[in-house]
Every structure is written in structure tokens, then in C-alpha cells.
Amino acid sequence: MRDGKGPSRAPVLQFTNCRILRGRRLLRWEDLWVREGRILDPEKLFFEERLVADQQRDCGGCILAPGFIDVQINGGFGVDFSQATEDVGSGVALVAQRILSHGVTSFCPTLVTSPPEVYHKVLPQIPVKSGGPHGAGVLGVHLEGPFISREKRGAHPEAYLRSFEANAFHDVLATYGSLDNVRIVTLAPELGRSHEVIRALTARGICVSLGHSVADLQVAEEAVQSGATFITHLFNAMLPFHHRDPGIVGLLTSDRLPPGRHIFYGMISDGMHTNPAALRIAHRAHPQGTKTLSGSIAPMDVCVRHFLQATDFVMLDDSLHVQATYISGELVWQAEEARQ
What we know:
- The chain has helices spanning 42-47, 88-98, 116-122, 168-176, 194-203, 217-226, 276-285, 300-311, 331-339; strands at 13-22, 25-35, 38-39, 55-58, 63-64, 68-73, 75-76, 79-80, 104-111, 137-138, 141-144, 182-187, 207-210, 230-231, 264-265.
- By secondary structure, the chain is α/β, with parallel strands linked by helices.
- The strands form three sheets. Strands 6, 9, 10, 11, 12, 13, 14 and 15 form an eight-stranded parallel β-sheet that branches.
- The longest helix has 12 residues, at 300-311.
């Protein structure tokens, strides 16, 4: 059966012999219909559009699930996104292709603290780009610094750290250049005039993340009230939790966040940077905020497995940790082919 719209109609892809996660349960031997990256209702497809699949893909019993979104990746496979080369795009493309096999379907290339000339040269070379068989999609650049704390700079070069000047947002533009390709900015909210910058960035649709900071809880709460919505590598490069002032970590259970506002966070779940007990604290305090994981040089799928084991996250299928296909839609097949 066909819908009569002619050859221009987008093809329908049917995944068979797969396991699908619904709620907290893995359903075995389910089928999934996809068209142009969107999951279809098979009943509507059959009875309303009178269609059957144009193509079928046998998943061999693997799990069919949404792909990972890596919002903080500084490079990989010999590529450093903070290097101002003449062909940054080729390095981004290489990483985009390689991370498919680890279940990542979209990512934010991340630049560490750098001098203005690096941002001016690199940022125009990393446009937002849709994913596909060629590689994971680029959601936009994550700028981690240079507006961060000297005390919590970590590996960021101190010589290039900056504070906000009198005309704070103008200083941001002068430092970064165009923000057209930017999706996330990590900054320390205790810096003077930071709230002015947070409001200006969020007004442009840029996510502001708090990190590399010595902010106390009140300052962190004020930053969220100004528009910040994320925490960069929770527990790392920030003040440790203290019962009198829990610092940025306290945002997980703060009662001073704007109504309906959720604070999300990344964690370095590689088995080394963050103790499993800390992973459990974060997950149990705010399980709905555990959307993104980052992990030093560890691949994303390894970090997720470690997080699941550390937090005792229950999945009603004990084989989740040993076989999984992480990418939804057509990219599932491409990722499997990349592994072979």
C-alpha cells in the first residue's frame, strides 16, 4: 500500500527484532517505524496513510534507544577543538564520525579557556550541523571559560582567564567574537556583572552553565534566577559540599529556584573523577536532572554504564549493561555498521 503522494514522499523505515525502552521496562521483539527521524504510530500509518515500510532493518535483538547528547567534549581521536588550525571543520567531522560507535548522536564541541584570537578563528569554523550517516550532529559550541575562577580553573591556562569589565556583555562579544554558533557558555557566577551577562546570553537562546567557580549557594541561586540552567561537571572544580553552605551543589535541592525551573547537570562518571557515593547523592537528590554525563577521556557509553552501576539504577532487563544500540532512528543502523 502506498499513499499516492508520488516518489517525493519520505521513505518509512521499519526496525524489527529490537528491544524498546518504555518507562522503566525493556520490551522484547518490538518493531519501530521511523520517517525523517520521527517515530511513527504504526496504526495510523496503516489505517490512515495506508502505508507499509519502504525498508526493513533487523536489529538482531539489540536495544533501540535515543542517542546520547554529549554537551562537553574537548576533542578526541587526536583532535583538540581549542587549536586554531586552518581546517577546524575536518577535525570536528572526524570526531563526529567516530563518536557514533559510542552512541553519541549529537554533541557540543567544547573550547577551554583561550585567547580572543583563538575564539575568533575557531568559532566561525564550527557551524551547527544535523547528524546522519556521516556523523553526529553539532548542536553548537560549548565555551568553557575564560570567565571562570582562578582558584578553580583546573587545567585552564591562568594567563587567559578574564573577568567582566564595565560593559560586561560587550566584553563577552569582544572576547568570543560572533556567538552565532555558540550553544553553551560555562562561567563563574561570583564574577562581578555576571548576572548581566547571564541575562544577555539567555536572551539569545544560549544556555548558561555554572562551573569552575567558588560561588556560594546564594550566588548560585541568584544566577539561576537570572537564567542559568546547567552545572558543568557537578562536584568537580567548585567548592565542596559543606553543611552550612553547600555551594553550587546545593542547587540540587534548593527551594529558591524560580517556579518550574529545573537545574540540569553534567558529571564526570568515569570511575575516577567522581566517587560512586557522590554519583548516588546527585542521582537520588534530583533524578530527573540526570540528563547528561561527561567523562574525561572515557567514552560516553562507558560513563553511562558506570553511572548505572554506581547509582543502582534499576532497569527491568539485566542485559542492558552488556548489549545496547544507543542511537534512535536511522542512525542506529549506521552506528552498528561503524562498529563492525
